[in-house]
């Protein structure tokens, strides 16, 4: 059988079109295998909640992801399918998201009879921190961070809106600001009540010392710091949260299987191997010219 140039060209097009599909299938297979190995090692149900900034193909427009109703539906289904005596391991990498979706997931976690462990390899801010508060143990990388859970109304912190009411006479404040302040106070009360519920969880055992609960509620919900202010491992531990720093290597391996979509020019680049020390060069004894 003879092949001409056009036959080879069409074969090349078919292979090129099938290659991305094959790569996605291979990546999905590696993810499932890694999850199965982690579950077998931990004897647990593993749930991943990973949000990356993605871009729309062709146009390349960045699209930020967050905890959504669709996420809560999937996580609730995973929890529902987990036997009561099987622990849950939740791997979090998220900037936060919708309050409704976050509270649904958090309530399901504290109702699970077996131990719930949250792993934070990099960051779990806002709603992600609220999910971490629902866990019996928070396992973090030494450089990972959590964040405050104070409510936001639009692009304004609820605590900042209330501060206006305290600093200005009532006759100098317009009606819209007063209504916003009323909503802000309600939002803060609701969040504080829910966080307190998470911290008082006693299933399967009490995780927070009773004397630390109000201190944690005040630190995370009062708006004393900005909403994007990172809470380090040391700060979280000093508050009394059940934090440990012993993230398994398999968590990092899993994160490698959920990469940030590539851009035209990488913003970070390095040689992917352990750092090796090289012999130190002898220092020059020559004096610089004056």
Can you put this structure into words, describing what you see?
It comes from Hydrococcus rivularis NIES-593. Pfam families: SDH_protease. This is Serine protease. InterPro entries: ClpP/crotonase-like_dom_sf, Pept_S49_ser-pept_pro. The structure is a single chain. With 290 residues, this protein is of the alpha/beta class. The protein folds into two domains: 1-42; 43-54 and 62-257, 2-enoyl-CoA Hydratase, Chain A, domain 1 (Alpha-Beta Complex), CATH 3.90.226. The chain has nine helices and eleven strands. The protein has helices spanning 5-42, 69-80, 99-111, 127-133, 158-167, 175-199, 210-221, 233-239, 249-256, and strands spanning 45-50, 53-55, 62-64, 88-93, 116-120, 123-124, 137-140, 145-146, 152-153, 156-157, 243-244. The strands form four sheets. It has a five-stranded parallel sheet with strand order 1-4-5-7-11, with helices on both faces. Strands 2-3 form a two-stranded antiparallel ribbon. A hairpin with a 6-residue loop joins strand 2 and strand 3. Helix 3 runs parallel beside helix 4 (127-133), helix 5 packs across helix 6 and helix 6 runs antiparallel to helix 7 (210-221). The longest helix is centred in the first third of the chain and has 38 residues, at 5-42. The radius of gyration is 25 Å and the shape is globular. Residues 55-62 have low confidence and may be disordered.
The profile of the biggest β sheet is:
5 strands, parallel
Helix proportion: 40-55%
CATH architecture of the largest domain: Alpha-Beta Complex
Give Rg in angstroms: 25 Å
- From the 3D structure, determine the CATH topology of the largest domain: 2-enoyl-CoA Hydratase, Chain A, domain 1
Q: What's the number of structural domains?
A: 2
- The number of helices is 9
Basic shape: globular
Top-tier CATH class of the largest domain: Alpha Beta
Lateral strand order in the biggest sheet? 1-4-5-7-11
Could you tell me the number of beta strands? 11
InterPro entries: ClpP/crotonase-like_dom_sf, Pept_S49_ser-pept_pro
Pfam families: SDH_protease
Organism: Hydrococcus rivularis NIES-593
Protein name: Serine protease
């Amino acid at each position: 059988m003879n092949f001409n140039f056009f036959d080879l060209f069409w074969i090349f097009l078919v292979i090129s079109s099938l290659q991305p599909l094959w790569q996605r299938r291979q990546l999905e297979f590696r993810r499932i295998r890694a999850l199965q190995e982690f579950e077998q090692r931990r004897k647990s149900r593993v749930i991943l909640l990973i949000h990356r900034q993605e871009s729309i193909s062709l146009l390349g427009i960045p699209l930020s992801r967050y905890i959504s109703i669709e996420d809560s539906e999937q996580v609730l289904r995973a929890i529902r399918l987990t036997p009561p005596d099987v622990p849950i391991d939740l791997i979090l990498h998220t900037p936060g998201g919708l309050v409704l979706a976050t509270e649904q997931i958090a309530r399901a976690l504290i109702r699970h009879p077996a131990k719930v462990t949250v792993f934070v390899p990099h960051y779990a801010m806002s709603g992600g921190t609220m999910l971490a508060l629902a866990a019996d143990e928070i396992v973090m990388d030494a450089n990972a961070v959590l964040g405050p859970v104070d409510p936001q109304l639009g692009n304004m912190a609820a605590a900042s809106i209330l501060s206006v009411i305290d600093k200005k006479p009532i006759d100098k404040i317009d009606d819209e600001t007063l209504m916003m302040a009323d909503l802000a106070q309600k939002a803060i009360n609701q969040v504080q009540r829910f966080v307190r519920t998470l911290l008082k969880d006693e299933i399967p055992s009490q995780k927070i010392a009773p004397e630390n609960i109000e201190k944690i509620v005040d630190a995370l919900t009062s708006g004393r710091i900005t909403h994007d202010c990172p809470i380090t491992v040391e700060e979280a531990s000093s508050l009394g949260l059940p934090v440990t720093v012993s993230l398994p290597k398999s968590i990092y391996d899993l994160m490698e299987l959920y990469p940030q979509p590539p851009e035209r020019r990488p913003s970070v680049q390095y040689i992917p191997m352990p750092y090796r020390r090289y012999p130190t060069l002898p220092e020059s004894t020559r004096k610089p010219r004056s």
